[in-house]
Protein: Phospholipid-transporting ATPase
Amino acid sequence: MEAGTPEGVSFQQPTKKIPKRRIVIPSLQSFKDEYEKVSKYYMSNRIRTTKYRLWTFIPRNLYEQFHRAANLYFLFIVLLNWIPVVEAFRKEITMIPLLVVLTIIAVKDGLEDYTKYRLDKMINNFVTHVYCGKTGDFVDKFWKDVKVGDFIQLSCNEEIPADMVLLYSSDGDGLCHIETSSLDGETNLKEKLIVKGFVEQTTEMDPESFSYRIECEIPNSDLNCFRGFIQHTSKERVGLSKDNLLLRGCTVRNTDIVVGIVVYAGHETKVMLNNTGSRYKRSKLEKKLNGDIIGCVLLLVVMCSVVAVGRGIWLSNHPGQYVYNSGKQFEPVWGGFLMFWTMIILLQVLIPISLYVSIELVKLGQIYFIQNDIDLYHEPTDTKIQCGSLNVAENLGQIEYIFSDKTGTLTENKMVFRRCSIAGQEYGHEENGKPETKRLNSGTRCSRGEGKGGGFRETDVVPDQRLVSKFRRISFNFYKKYETAEPISEIMQISEFFIALAICNTVVVSEPETTGTHEFWGKVFKEIEGIMNIKIERSPSIELVSLDAPDKFLVHEGMDLLCAPGPDVDGLPLDYDPAELSYEAESPDEAALVHAARAYQCTLVARNPEQVVIDMNYMGILTFQRLHILPFDSTRKRMSVVVKHPILNRIVVYTKGADSVMMDLLQKEPTGNENTDKNRKKMQERTQRHLDDYASKGLRTLCIAMKILSDEEYEEWLQGHFLAESSIENREELLLESAERLENNLILLGELERKKWLTEESKTLKSGINIWMLTGDKRETAVNIAYSCKLLESTDQLFVLKSNKRRSTIALRISASAHVKKPQFSYALVIDGPTLKFALHDRVQKKFLELTASVRGVICCRATPVQKSQIVTLVRKERKVMTLAIGDGANDVSMIKLADVGIGICGQEGMQAVLASDFALAQFKHLKKLLFVHGHWCYTRLANMILYFFYKNLAYVGLLFWFQFFSGFSGTPMIDYWSLIFFNLLFTSAPPIIYGVLDQDVSAECLLSNPELYKASQRNEPYGKSAFAVNILDGFYQSFVCFFLPYYTYRNSGIDLYSFGSILNTTMFFIIILHLVIESKYLTMIHFSVFAFSIILFFSIIGTFGALCVLCNPPANPYWVMQRQLANPVFYQICIVTTMLALLPRYLSALKPDISGYIAIFIWDLPCCGFVLKFLHYLGTSCPSISQAILSRDTSWHSSIPMSSKHHIMLEGGRDTGS
Structure:
């Protein structure tokens, strides 16, 4: 395609409706009219990720905050207090709690949004180079001023401002390397290609000579797809793909200058369309909390109704009395009705308005300690746990189902070349991957940066000596024989097998001194030019491989010397060291294959979009012209590369893929030669046996095949493939059909196996948690890994569901269900992807779930990403259980997002799973502590703190409630308004937060060694109905004692209202604080410091208020009340006695294990056995552990009872049970 002049060119314009396709017109003066017509459909490149604007912040933030039911409740209280007849407090005082909470949340939201604003401003003001038609050169412009159709010039290490199609690169091979870490977290470089037809440019592109239009799909969020074409005025089209698109946010690497035209800008770029914000997941505890708050509202209604009824009765018995707060007289019924609303205002504290703020602060503290846990840090990769969500930390303590990927999760993504079968012959490499392995072959080389510390390195490959001896026999004679003989000889199959390993991949080659491939590629050919005294054109349009002469494999005369048999690679007249080559692979699989080929002296030397160079040692350097790449996809499950073979001088297709699909694509038709057909069949059968054997041992299998095409076959296929590439609609389907037309009648070269190493301690998560393995691997491999990681036991009976019809699936389920009911066996279920498709059908899924509930383990093999997400959703919704999904690859993202807790593993398959997860771990073994320790702590701490809040508020409100029985149900508080407000807002707010962040009911060591303790949080024991009821009753009891003991002490004493209230207020303050001390299982200096601070704050504010605020609480006067009480010895006596009596039940409950233990010791020493047995009978019903310990004369239990300890850990049956 040649560049023409744009003058007089007019493109067809779209209609006024938004088109289904995007037409991009260059922003040039010659296209001004056409550009103005279509530019209205384009968005600017300015971005805004903030939620608020300055003038909308207050109304919008208030609107969002009042979506919370609690805030609406307190707003109702505030408005209710403005009605004079029901006014309980001064109007401004009632507003304080709500204003404080609204202000704290608003400040938090405002700071978060302001941070986004500053980041947006910084990004929008980045500078880039945009072509200006007036000056005829590239000028500096802000990112926010970039428009669709602009030509952008970027230099090395510059960030891409918008999605743009690559039109020019200073790299002679038409390449541009980009780093996509900002998109997917991957730091390995990606290759982008110049649009076909623009590669021939020898000088920098002149935008004024651009006379094309681009037609592409409308903006979408799919990062892995881009469809469109670029069209010349002559209607000639060239297809565009994702390889031609540079995405916003990526960084240009190893390329001096690139030029592209913007097709998507601003919020229409793919990265911005994927920026959907953080996901919100409600925790199970939060859902239960909402229900309990409703219960507290009902309790509030009951208490207010009691007072209202009492008020009506009192007014009936005392007619003509004036209401205290209004000075008016009311009828009993009307007075009782008004008193109901007055008490709603007075007892509003029963609903904990500060609880939500406290929960957020506690979660922040819990996340901080999780992130700074040294045990969750992986030193070799310098990776610590990452927390992406604050809402689900407590869910970690209630997980009932774990859905785990196998590859990279239960197994590490460390690939080691273990075995191969070529031409039906097996070659073992058992020494590979062992720590004590030493590289025995000089050809075994390791790339830089591989293998940290001791142990094995994935790139260390010890060649099989039998295969080495055969490989040394490879020569051009075997290829010449192929031209006249069929089938391919064994030696030629070995040669082609390793050639396929070396070139059928996307591995990038570089030297340590360089960070890209194009510099090294240029160095190689520069050396060739100098040594051979020839000139090699760098343009990819010049073919370096001869397509005509079979005896000369490179175009230029004299170059056939490099391809002839000669000395070892070290003796070649080419100045490069294979040991210094470095490979950057997108997956460990590809890296393992390339290193295996290099171990046999088939070294990948260089790669560019048009050619691949390999060093075959005895055959010299071979240059393959790369014609096409058919990338791997989950539908085909294979990858192919089409090349021009320099020796065969034919078009060759190399294909690698899963054996489940590859074996069906092999040559089946008879050749007419009976011996040939018989040998081919035997080889395929032997290879299949090897595949089954390797899979049963947990090895990952891969088939390698090739196909030799004639020129006519290739041209016929190329026409259809070209149409598929230039299509926009149904492009994926057309490309799939094109690939399937090519990938058939393949010649099997062999197959190989790679070892996936088990992660350390991947077999420890079996304590009341159901674990399902969801993998795309074949059944034999998945089952073997399940046995290795102890997901399955050797005694388990396996049921395998494998069917391609729904009716058959139901029948298999019924057959399996009949067996799993036998109690003498344990069972496991194995189901493959096709069967799973029918098992998830609406009519079958419930029966399928019934079957899975009867087995101890489920393995889903050959499962697609969609099926993984469907399984997670089905179990979570139908079973009503807490689910956790864990994986490390992009195929696990959907199930990670749909589970209650999603965990990503920072592996070698990119960062998509990590970016989509709630928590990201460096290794699977860290999951044990995350669940058993931090999960248990987070749930228990938060549950206990919430219960404490309910208890604390009810105990305090109870004082006001009891006082109404002795004040004519008048709604009069005996505590001043400011003390009522500050009690929960300031005085008692900090201690429960510290309690929720730092408390440890059981030590980490105990939780790790006794996974059974995890079942307590699974069953919601810390926050069950009984626990909630006990705290409510305890609150009523403590308020009862705290009120009536001082009341009867000062009865008929003439004490004033606020003096009596100050005694109650102070006593209840110490009861609440000491109650928390009793409940705390782990006290540190931080706790005591916070307790001391709260006490000082209480007396300082109350004392200051009583000394200065003479008229702060009209009509009453709290002046000098606290000071007078502090000078009265009776005040101290009442506070001490009341506090002790109120806390006595809670204290005895906390000491119950100690008391039972001392009773047991006393009984053990009694001489009367009859009395002992009777007592044991009694204890057997209430405390079985003690009776069992005594009957077994367990002296270790006797010695474990602490002599002076308020909190301790009892040893029950040899296990820690907690305090």
